[in-house]
Amino acid sequence: MNILGVITARGGSKGIPGKNIKLLGGKPLIAYTVEAAQKSKLITHLVVSTDDQEIANICRRYNAEVPFLRPKELSQDETTHIPVMQHAIKFMENKLSIIFDFAVILQPTSPFRLPEDIDGTIKVLMESEADSAVSLVKIPSAEHPIKVKKLEGNKVVPFCMLEPEGLRRQDFPPAYKRSADVYAMRRATLIDKNRLYGDYIVGYVVPEERHIDIDTPLDWIKAEYMLEDLKKKGLLVE
What we know:
Layout: E1 3-8, E2 23-24, E3 27-28, H1 29-38, E4 45-49, H2 53-61, H3 81-96, E5 102-106, H4 115-126, E6 132-138, E7 149-152, E8 155-158, E9 176-186, H5 187-192, E10 201-205, H6 217-233
Parallel strand pairs: 1-4, 1-5, 6-10
Antiparallel strand pairs: 2-3, 5-9, 6-9, 7-8
C-alpha cells in the first residue's frame, strides 16, 4: 500500500499570528506533528503542504520533506482541503511515478496526537470498505448534544435529541465529535469522487486528555498547560 501523509500548514494565521511555527514548550508547533508522523508505521510518504517559505524551512530543519510551495490559489482563507490534497497527491504521484492508495491529512493545530493515533485511524479504514476514517473524541457531559436546545418563538425545544426529565449526566448516551487529529481517505474518494469523507465513514477514538485543536489564544494557553501535564505522564513523542 502507498499511503501519503500530508501536513497542511498555510501561512498567515489570523487568530494566532504565526501559529504553525509559534514555539510551544520551546518547539515550533508544527514540529510535534512532523515528529509524530515520521514515527507512523503505515505512512509510506510524508510531505508538508505550505505556501510559506519560513514554515517550509523550519519543517526541513526537522527532516520533513517539502517538495513544493503550495500555489497561491490554493492558499486562500476560503480554500478547502479537497484541492489542497488533490494537488499534493498528483504532485507526488508525478514525482515518484506511483499511485497512492490512501491519503492522510495531519493538521499542526493538534500537536498531541501520537503515532498510534495516526496508524489506528488508517487501519480502521484499510480494514473496512469505508470511503474515509476520522479520529474522534468523546464529548464531555457538560457539552453533550442532549443538552443543546433551540428556540421556537420563546419555546425551548430539543435541537437534535430529546432530554428525558431527570436523566443523570452519567446516563447520557456516548457522543463523539471529530477530534481534528487525523483524517484518512481512499484516493478514489478524493480524486474520483472529489470528496474528503464520502458516504461511509469509520472512526477511531483518541483520549480526551490529548485532544486539542488550537484556534484561539485561549486554546494556546490550554495547550501549554496540557503539554506540561502530558510530559509528566510520559505521553508525548520526544
